[in-house]
Amino acid sequence: RPLLATFFKSIDDFVCTFLDPPLRPSIDPKHVLSGNFAPVDELPPTACDVVEGSLPPCLHGGAYIRNGPNPHFVPRGPHHLFDGDGMLHVITFTSPDGPIFCSRYIKTYKYTVEQKTGHPIFPSVFSSFNRLAASISRGLIIFARVLTRQFDPVANGFGLANINVALIGGRLFALGESDLPYAMKVTPGGDVITLGRHDFFSDKPFLNMNMTAHPKMDPQTGEAFSFRYHVIPPLLTIFKIDANGKKQPDVPIFSMKSTSLSHDFALTRNYVIIPDMQIVMDFTEVVKGRSPARVDLDKVPRVGVIPRYAEDESELVWIEARGLNVVHCTNAWEEDDGETVVMVVSNPSSIEQALEGLDLACPKMEKIIINVKDKTLHRHLLSDEVLDMGIINPTYSGRKCRYAYAGIVAQPMMLVGVVKIDLSVEDSASGGIVASRLYGPGCSGSEPFFVPREPENPSAEEDDGYLVAYIHDENNQESMFLVMDAKSPTLETVAAVKLPGRVPTGFHGLFIKESDLNKL
């Protein structure tokens, strides 16, 4: 076995050195992992200092957790931003001595196998298949490694769990859509432990073994809804996880005609809304020396609306929506006694660039109004600014909200500020933006998250709370945890915590309040 592993590695090195180059920027590790995208080492729980303002009481006893890609090994060949191993960056407010910060890898099957081999061996649909000779060679290496049991993706998965974190059924999960989620635990001392891959106590084998990284939780019922895509029929499957964290029967969607790499979806009181986008998975591209993940410009995007408790797809309504490729669903709700569904989404202006970089795709925030009965759809641009990573006050999930908050996207792939959008304002000169803040020259941040000031007060105003995010300053190489006043027209700083380690640019996160953290 060691001789075989060495042999495979030598072939892999040859492919990386002689067959892969030249690499396009989106898979060139020298480009992808530059600046604040460079990986960091794990950091055990370490005390932090509040260097500005004071932390609001609603944070006390809780924790903010953000996920993101952080390659465990320096890539020897092509590497896409989505390929990095998942790492959680956690700041807890449970100690009387002040905040505690910690960064830990999610110990996925991929991570543990490659930790033993000492180098990466798992393939990536985004970067492994690059040019014909390299694609064929790498495909043979992958087949040989599986055949010789270097790794077993069928039994154990091959996901990175590097996109999101979610509370489902009272448990904390790290998620990536190529695999099942991994259950995680935050210890009283602020450390992060991987408990293992989780199938939600399914009575039957969890066919296809993956789910979206953006499950939708209903704060009223405690239920979670999710979906998964696959390359064999059914190409799309919807399912529910009950309030106790147990998976319910699948609802296969056979009317999905191609494998859409739908990243997100929406949930309302009565409906699940699924985008069918132009980013698809097509493994015939591999024999052409190209990535199976591609943009199909001939495909007409659609939006599917199905009752959330449907047992089959007989009541599913598909509506064509040219030019609408939903990347993230910020919120959705119903109007007109359920005849109208309203969605707030981010949509790339240049879908052909979506796999090359979020900044190049130029996403913008839109309000989508769907008449379910008439099967019609209308789009309203909320702002001309390039915006993504939209969030709301989470207590308004699935019901009408007035405000949304989103990151200002700039090159290269960074969020350089945040805006507050009044969704009730249309056709104004500002596009409904009622508050805005730039982080400053050389500074970039993560997706913001809204924390209500009085989480247990049902009569609190919707925007009465705080936006929290990690911010990194390239000028002094310092990272901060920033708390901003969501009511302020400038989203002014309420508190800032200097972090003991750098937080790389990443993806999604959440704040867990004290009562939920204590139950984990």
TrEMBL record:
One GO cellular component term: chloroplast stroma
Tree of life domain: Eukaryota
Claim: Secreted is one of the keywords in the record: no
Signal peptide extent: none
GO molecular function: carotenoid dioxygenase activity; metal ion binding
Keyword Iron belongs to the record: yes
Binding site for Fe cation: H214, H263, H328, H508
BP GO annotations: carotene catabolic process
Classification via InterPro entries: Carotenoid_Oase
Cofactor note: Binds 1 Fe(2+) ion per subunit.
PANTHER family documented for this protein: BETA-CAROTENE DIOXYGENASE, CAROTENOID CLEAVAGE DIOXYGENASE 4, CHLOROPLASTIC-RELATED
Family listed: Belongs to the carotenoid oxygenase family.
Name of the protein in question: Carotenoid cleavage dioxygenase 4
Organism: Erythranthe guttata (Yellow monkey flower)
